[in-house]
Write a structure and sequence with these properties.
The protein is α+β, with helices and mostly antiparallel strands and 143 residues long. The chain is built from three helices and five strands, in the order E-H-H-E-E-H-E-E. Strands 1-2-3-5-4 form a five-stranded antiparallel sheet, with helices on one face. Helix 1 crosses helix 2 and helix 2 packs across helix 3.
Length: 143
């Protein structure tokens, strides 16, 4: 096994912290050797997943944290999104109806569709009073 890179960020459930999240994802993607366009897609996907958590896991007006951990090794880049809000499994949400225009789409619906398209693995579990969402992207050189 080569070097392992590990980094995490803890954000309050406030969408105004998204720029900090984007910087974090940029840095991690750089470590993984992703190009600009893949980095942008990853940013969108992680942002969707995190904002989803911020919107659904905590009741209106409740303060809570969302932790995003990233690890990069020889095989893949993995993101783990953890929060202690109410159980919420985003992977069970229906995929967005992509025939609708952006204005007509339910907010958040496209997120999971995008995340599914992009990631090689998506795994959700609720354990120890926490939502744990794992996202994995294989690092393939022959893509």
């Amino acid at each position: 096994m080569g070097d392992h890179y590990k980094k995490s960020i803890t954000l309050p459930n406030d969408v105004q912290t998204v720029p900090a999240l984007n910087n974090f994802v940029d840095e991690v993607c750089e470590q993984a050797g992703f190009d600009m366009s893949m980095t942008m897609k990853m940013n969108l996907a992680i942002e969707e997943a995190v904002v989803n958590v911020m919107d659904y896991a905590y009741p209106e007006g409740t303060k809570g944290d969302v932790v995003v951990e990233a690890t990069v090794d020889d095989q893949c880049l993995a993101f783990v999104i953890i929060d202690s809000g109410k159980p919420f499994d985003p992977t069970t949400k229906d995929d967005a109806d992509t025939t609708l225009s952006a204005e007509e789409r339910p907010i958040g619906g496209l997120g999971i569709f995008l995340v599914r398209q992009l990631m090689d693995e998506l795994h959700y579990e609720y354990k120890g009073g926490k939502n744990v969402l794992r996202l994995k992207k294989k690092l393939t050189t022959n893509d």
